[in-house]
Amino acid sequence: MLANPSFHGRPLQFVPTVRNELCRPSACPLQLHSRSYQFLASSLGDKRKRIRRRSISRSFKTQFSVRASAEPQDLSVWAVGSAGVQASPFSVRIPVGDRHITVETGLIGRQASGAVTVTDGETIIYTTVCLADVPSEPSDFFPLSVHYQERFSAAGRTSGGFFKREGRTKDHEVLICRLIDRPLRPTMLKGFYHETQVLSWVLSYDGLHPPDALAVTAAGIAMALSEVPSSEVIAGVRIGLIGDKFIVNPTIQEMENSKLDLLLAGTNNAILMIEGYCDFLPEDKLLEAVEVGQDAVRGICKEVEALVQKCGKPKMLDAIKLPPKELYKLVEEIAGNELVEVLQIKNKIPRRKALSSLEENVISILSEKGYISTMEAFGSTETLPDLLEEDEDEEVVVDGEVDEGDVHIKPVARKTVPLLFSEVDVKLVFKEVTSKLLRKRIVERGKRSDGRTPQEIRVIDARCGLLPRAHGSALFTRGETQSLAVVTLGDKQMAQKIDNLVDDDEYKRFYLQYSFPPSCVGEAGRVGAPSRREIGHGMLAERALGPILPPEDDFPYTVRVESTITESNGSSSMASVCGGCLALQDAGVPVKCAIAGIAMGMVLDTKEFGGDGTPLILSDILGSEDASGDMDFKVAGSDVGITAFQMDIKVGGITLPIMKQALLQAKDGRKHILAEMSKCLPPPSRKLSKHAPLIHVMKVKPEKINLIIGSGGKKVKSIIEETGVEAIETQDDGVVKITAKDLSSLEKSKAIISSLTMVPVVGDIYRNCEIKSIAPYGVFVEIAPGREGLCHISELSANWLAKAEDAFKVGDHLDVKLIEINDKGQLRLSRRALLPDPEPEKQSAKPRSASLSNDNVVSPKTLDKGKPKKALTVSNDGSASRSAESLKDKTFPMKLSSPGKEAAKRLVSPEKDGPDKPQTKKSDGNISSKSGNAVVNGEAKVV
């Protein structure tokens, strides 16, 4: 079967024989099946009726449009095979910035209405555009859906979560879906109701070239190649600012040093969408960046237009169905005067109810006059002849024909049926007329629905500290828009993990979550997972507040901001910025400065309403002005610079002069809002809440981290259980963060960690240390939590001991001195070094009796056994001064018994004495610097 390329080798979903000029054999190679069809008229009766094929053809030819009503512009790119119509591959290289991107079509996704792959480096985006064969019910919202997915296989890895298959769309992907959707909508022609779907996948990611701006360009190219009737080709680029140089489509590494992150989408001659974040960038610099981006977009669009001329599909212009012009006149005649009065109602809810009542009144009047069809099942602008009869077996016969019998049926003249309008068309026209009158009122009278001038800001009220248990809270009200912002502080466990293609296992220490319940607009609606709008508005407010947060080294908390919209009548995302800033101050976060946000609107074509043609910029727009206006431009920042911005256009685009005017007017509005925020009552506390956790940051040697963690994390868990702290976080660089609810538990954990990670120095003295265990050769003493040392039996007492357990038991407390650290890091302790020396007459080479009950007598040779091989010796030149200095910061310095008593301690000689040689006595010189003693020739002298 020879098929038209626009059908992609697929049969129509609705296939009655349509006998019109579009499907004559000479005009369309598609051949439809020629069998009879039945129509179920259950909405018009309980019985099934049979209708001739010819009648159905006449009745439905105005409802359904046949896709691809014209021949392809260039048949040379189409190849007809046994599998159907196929396009030969076609690729083009387009210069973007300092490199090229490659666009290819006709190789992958040949059954889609439009399919394209766009390559930048080794990053590849695959995007398709498909549309339904049958139009959906008319609506004021174009039926466009966008889905973007990042395959982890594109980077050669899998998801870090439990489920390894890509599932629910992540927030990062939702944001890119919005970036794709927003510039596409303004280019769609009104009256096209075929559901359109854009699917985009990241097939390859090189970690260098980001895919988001590339996805916007790919979607614009695929839409231009498809049958969807769009006005112009769109493309998108990212602009970075490194130093004073603007970079088009910068790499990931370049963006790390960029002061600006701007994503711009537009057409050959206008800007459709911008979104970006910067670090207090002035307005003139932002305009320069937009100009650079517009030039780059213009170059891409010119190349894409040439590609569309070569291998694009014909547009379905015949599918556009607009309401009749006569209906506009009827609606204005019926409701024009009342609409003007209703639009002057200041409050949102009464105005909305009045508009809804007036709309119902218009429909009722048109129905009474017979202008509205009640046969909604057909969706046509003309009524069907009365062809359906009550008898199921009776066959409907067309005028002038006879049945199979001999009796002729008298022909009946067909009644003329006036042109009727559907109720949907009336609602669409009513909305357009309302928008027109609203814009006319603003331009002619210079007054808006609530009585403000174009530059005037609504009344602002702000207060902090509403929630006593929250770490920080603020209620920001601007007119009928209100945001309740709450700040929660925590440690890294509260941080949000990001698991996506671009950011590999990244943790966000600051995030803002925005929620828009239906009650904020006085309605009952769905409550559940956050919508795409909520995710997008939350990210905009988050990125606006990010630059004012202190660095992690100065404020080691994870910060979460929740903005719940309690009232909404325009610019709720900017209210979240203002409320979030006040809540951060109330939580004691040391922000750099205050931030405010404002939404700007526009009426572009003022000549239509008697203006001079100059675009009219509106400050702090209402919801109705957002819906009826031509622009929604959100700008957040301080009084000196911008931190975040987002612009959506509902017309063919705007120029740089218009954007400059909007930015300057937005700056004046921000200054006014910041001044009102400074009058907040009660003001923000600006100090840490008593309910906020305490975080202590300490630094240890990196090699000591394992001592804190322990085997399998046992040690750190035991510290948490013992002290009652919330968490202990360790980093490879030696940073330890302790999170606790109270100061006492924090101090306990600090002491334990300090003891575990301390660096012991020979000569240090440790008081009141507990004996943990006893061995035949000595006792093990805990000098600090988790740190034990051996006090040999020979160092336990000044007298001879046969067994350590004869004088000590587990649990006793001793004062010990560190006398040696061996190569394995083991500690040798001495109690004897802190005991007063015996009387001079007892210090001889002769055997001395011990003070124990067994009265054993030992020789100096016996005392040498088990003594350390290494010892600290004090030279005459005062080399012991380092040991004395080491005790300056100790809590308990060593004290001499009396100034005249010998203070030097006995140490074991590093060499074994002979059997007949007496033990040589030397002093280690480890004397408290506070005592004022010095060591000279091995004896302590009083200075």
TrEMBL record:
SMART domains: KH (SM00322), S1 (SM00316)
EC number of the protein: 2.7.7.8
Gene Ontology cellular-component annotations: chloroplast stroma; cytosol; mitochondrion
PROSITE patterns per UniProt: KH_TYPE_1, S1
Keyword Transmembrane helix belongs to the record: no
Gene3D superfamilies linked: GHMP Kinase, N-terminal domain, K Homology domain, type 1, Nucleic acid-binding proteins
UniProt keyword terms in alphabetical order: Chloroplast, Exonuclease, Hydrolase, mRNA processing, Nuclease, Nucleotidyltransferase, Plastid, RNA-binding, rRNA processing, Transferase, Transit peptide, tRNA processing
Pfam family, one: RNase_PH
Domain of life of the native organism: Eukaryota
Basic and acidic residues: bias regions: 902-924
Keyword field contains rRNA processing: yes
Span of domain S1 motif: 763-832
The family this protein is said to belong to: Belongs to the polyribonucleotide nucleotidyltransferase family.
Name of protein: polyribonucleotide nucleotidyltransferase
Record gene name: LOC104212045
